[in-house]
Amino acid sequence: MRLRPLMSLLLALPLASQATPPDGTKATLTVLETTDLHTNVLGYDYYRLARDRRVGFSRTATLIAQARRTWPNTLLLDNGDTIQGTVLADYQAQIKPIGCDQKLAIYQAMNAIGYDAGTIGNHEFNYGLAFLSQVTGTPFRVKDVPEHHGKGPDYPLVLSNVFSNQTGQPLYAPYKVLERTVVAYTAEGQALRVPLRIGLLGFAPPPIMQWDKRHLDGRVHVLGAVEAAKKYLPQLKAAHADLVLAMLHGGLDTAPYTTSMENPGWYLAGVKGIDAMLLGHQHTQFPGPRFVGMDQVDAHRGTVRGVPAVMGGYFGRDLGILHLALVYREDQWRVDRDRSHAQVRPICAGKHDCVPADPAIEALVQQAHEGAIAYVKTPIGRSDFRMSSYFADLGDVSALAAINAAQHDYVRHWVAQNRPDLKGLPVLSAAAAFRTGFGGASDYTDVPAGELSIRNAADLYLYPNTLAAVRIDGTLLKAWLERSAERFNRIDPSVTTEQALIGSHLPGYNFDQIQGEGLHYRIDPSQRPGQRVVELSWHGRPVDPAQPLLVATNSYRASGGGHFPGLDGSHTVLNAPDSNREVLIDWLRQHPRLHRQDLPTRSWQFVPLALRGPVTFRSAAGKLALAHEDGLDGVYLLNTHDDGSATYGVDLSRP
Known about the structure:
Layout: H1 3-12, E1 16-17, E2 26-34, E3 44-45, E4 50-51, H2 57-70, E5 74-78, H3 87-95, H4 105-113, E6 117-118, H5 129-135, E7 162-164, E8 175-185, E9 191-203, H6 208-211, H7 213-216, E10 220-222, H8 225-238, E11 243-248, H9 265-268, E12 276-279, E13 285-286, E14 297-298, E15 303-304, E16 307-312, E17 318-329, E18 332-335, E19 341-346, E20 348-350, E21 353-354, H10 359-376, E22 379-383, E23 387-388, H11 401-418, E24 427-431, E25 446-447, E26 450-453, H12 454-460, E27 466-473, H13 474-484, E28 499-500, E29 513-515, E30 519-523, E31 533-538, E32 541-542, E33 548-554, H14 555-558, E34 572-579, H15 580-590, E35 593-594, E36 604-606, E37 615-620, H16 624-629, E38 635-640, E39 645-650
Parallel strand pairs: 1-9, 2-5, 5-6, 9-11, 11-12, 12-16, 22-35, 24-33, 28-37, 30-36
Antiparallel strand pairs: 2-17, 3-4, 7-10, 8-9, 13-16, 14-15, 15-16, 17-18, 17-19, 20-21, 22-26, 23-25, 24-29, 27-33, 27-34, 30-31, 31-32, 37-39, 38-39
């Protein structure tokens, strides 16, 4: 019980300093990682106007303070996707943009506890280069991007693989060497203070060139993570870095490497000179069960091809902790991989066991927080039915139909006013449910009947995409729907045991449900991917493979997000200046009394299957009546779980 106070007392004593420690000297550097904070500064759900203690940087800050008291040599790094992701982020970027003399709320909070460095993720680019330049205090020297001299975070940002087309130079410092003094111990046990030079590299996912094409195309270019690492590692060596940490806003994937790889961590670990990695982007934990069985990956200790690594969750739910055991031999520090390990510490160890929030952070961001709340309370209409995504994967379109109606009308009016050559083409619309339980039993869209406000529109449309329209044909429409149908596991009708309907092959935000008056199709999950969409028809007739069509969608999808066949930007006919959420808000204001009959009906059903065993579906508990209310009569309850979720059965024999 007295170990920690004694350790603190020891570290407070004067220690000898030595520039070159003797051979055999050992130290442990504990790297603390936050990643994918997505502006969850406080534990607050702006869609439900309620506190949410399971998320939020204000609680992560408490874990950081605890870690700093526990381990003497700590480094705190942020791994990107920091400035976007909540209504608070949109409020400061789009609704009431902050001035050049102000700092983002998330950076205010992070500055309050002190970071050593950070990198840039893909979502940093969502609001455009001008905004990113301003809020990070970094002039980019990029074509058509004004140089704002704003106030960024107090810590340095490192990004090794994104370059200005105008200058050929990286947008941010491509590497950084931090000079720190750490407590080490000689082989005889003598405590010393010794210098340590820590080299940092940072990498954004190369697919940003597709995902934010409207902001980046022609302005910047990207290198693959492996290529960028090889470019700058010699410079870090020349700068006498004792060890190199790679801050990769990406995860692990053992598919064949390409320079545009989204999650290249497995390959980056194979680059000689990388001593440790910080991972992110995949919204999970490493070490953790998701990576058990991956080739040359220790999902328990936290190593990738022998390289120590950590991925610290998302939304401030966890703190990544990487313990790097260092030993000084032959005039250099080396990482002892056998003694290094990682852990991910949650802010909530149990359902009712969460660390307290840091009250100082809440006080810092209170004004912006209250402004965001006032904004989302703005009324925009009424609805006489509930819109939710609890059963969106089963075809409940209550949370999608208003989006599709708004997108459809926007594109139809745009064609009438601007593109007479496209008049007469069928206009369809594609939307996906963004919240389908990935973050737990409360991570669903749920808009009750009654007054509608902007927070409800933000719940229905989560991301700051802009509206786009693509011109495709019947062949690409079929391919689009087939890609969406990869959401489902392949169901074997002869199996007598339980089979889960939803797989891990495709996230919910890529399960597009396309609607349009007269469009109908069926999905057969018993077939292999690519052969699941059948009976695709338009007004009762099979869709001609050569039939030209317009599909309203978002900028992410139109430019290649989600890897849908043919959607690479080449079919885009409209890149609207308006966000999909703004389009939805305007449409709801034009329909101040929304009725279910105002919206397009469900366009698809499952092919009836004669099954020998149950097919299961996981959603929030207590929602069975809602499924039946929305016409899903084949859904029945199997059991409920302590985490607030439930397993439902799905009778696929019913159309």
